[in-house]
Design a protein that fits this description.
The protein is mainly alpha-helical. The chain has helices at about 1-10, 60-65, 70-80, 90-100, 105-115, 130-140, 145-165, 165-190, 195-205, 220-230, 235-245; strands at about 20-25, 30. Helices cover about 60% and strands about 0% of the residues.
């Protein structure tokens, strides 16, 4: 139940394939129409990749990481993220291959980051430098898919910090947002679409204050305007989101 609350509250956007897949919770807040069930293990003993002798973790095959649906990707990520805490060459290679496979499709991207960004305590996601296996995998990913999701990983938890009434959940959301900003900063130097999306998000968040959005690509402004509307973001949420975008400047 605790994992369910943290992931859904902090990264609810990643649990829906489309921004329109929402339902109304009490108070009119829109949430994704997906709940988390116990994570299934999909690997048979004959399919598993070799494990470190000291670990009981079970890893997916490359094919499973590349093709399995979202809920299975959450399960895979829960095992794979632990590899990022190690620095031996064999583990780095294993993590690199698996994460690259996950980040080759939308379900894998959402599943990986829903786990990576919401881990409790100090994790690899809190390091100033992006772990090498993740950095390499992101460089190989389709930026047209990865970048908007990476932006959502900042927008959604930032908004939730003010929408939550539970102080603990608010703190968790803020931590998730900060981790998301670290990922987005890395991508910012790799692909121009990060700036395009962030400028559009900033403009949409600042519309109420009269700021001009003409400098942004119109299609992205329309996309994020719809996104904000679907989630019912108010002035307080927009203010926090605009500040988060400013942190990327």
């Amino acid at each position: 139940m605790r994992l369910h609350r943290i992931v859904v509250s902090s990264l609810g956007v990643l649990l829906a394939k489309e921004a329109s897949a929402f339902t109304c919770a009490p108070g009119g807040i829109r949430v994704a129409r997906i709940g988390l069930a116990p994570f299934p293990r999909r690997c048979s003993s004959s399919q598993r990749l070799p494990m470190a002798a000291e670990s009981e973790a079970t890893f997916p095959t490359i094919e499973q990481a590349a093709k399995d649906p979202f809920m299975s990707q959450l399960s895979h990520a829960s095992e794979i993220c632990g590899l990022l805490e190690k620095d031996d060459a064999k583990t780095i290679t294993l993590a690199s291959d698996l994460i690259a496979a996950m980040l080759s499709h939308s379900d894998g991207i959402r599943g990986f980051f829903a786990t990576y960004l919401t881990g409790e305590g100090d994790t690899a996601a809190d390091k100033e430098e992006i772990p090498e296996p993740l950095a390499g995998a992101m460089n190989k990913a389709d930026m047209d898919v990865l970048v908007p999701l990476a932006c959502m990983n900042v927008v959604m938890p930032t908004a939730m910090t003010s929408m939550h009434t539970d102080p603990e959940l608010s703190v968790n959301a803020a931590r998730t947002a900060q981790r998301g900003i670290r990922v987005l900063k890395y991508l910012q130097d790799k692909h121009g679409s990060v700036k395009t999306n962030c400028d559009a998000i900033r403009a949409v968040a600042a519309v109420a204050s009269g700021d001009d959005a003409d400098s942004c690509v119109e299609e992205r402004v329309e996309y994020w305007t719809k996104f904000f509307k679907n989630y019912g973001y108010g002035e307080k949420e927009k203010e926090g989101i605009a500040k988060a975008m400013d942190a990327l400047s």
